[in-house]
Amino acid sequence: MLYPGPFPSPHYPTLFHASELHVEDGVLLFSAEHLVRGFMEPGRFYDVGLHEWAHAFIRSNPNLHWPEPGEDVWELLAQVSGFNRAVLQRYVNRPDLELLPAMMVHYIHFAPSFEAVLPEYARYFKLIFGK
Fold first, then answer.
1. How many CB atoms lie within 10 A of CB 99?
2. Quick count: other Cβ atoms within 10 Å of Cβ 1?
3. What is the DSSP letter of 17?
4. Gap between the terminal Cα atoms of the chain
5. What is the pLDDT of residues 77-118, one digit of tens each?
6. Which of 2, 13, 77, 100 has its Cβ near the most Cβ atoms within 10 Å?
């Protein structure tokens, strides 16, 4: 479902946010403004579309034995993209922004930097995605 801009939802009734995977209804919710910016300029704007699709992919494939990265990985992602955790959380405007989907977004959009900073996770994602 697309909204023109940030929107509230049953899970976040007071937060106008940019994206959400609403598991109960099997729906991906997006701010069109954020979705387009992240798709067109992922180096300047966080790709909320890819984030939520990655989140859905993870939830749909529990048999893949996903890694459980520690909170320190947020700092390493900032080295990869320049987007620190606080910036990403403000942009999406959800306090519970998921780390593993964020890692997948960084792996896809910033592959060389991701491989240099987080080589063990890059190897893991290469196995999953076949590249």
1. 16
2. 11
3. B
4. 30
5. 999 999 999 999 999 999 999 999 999 999 999 999 999 999
6. 77
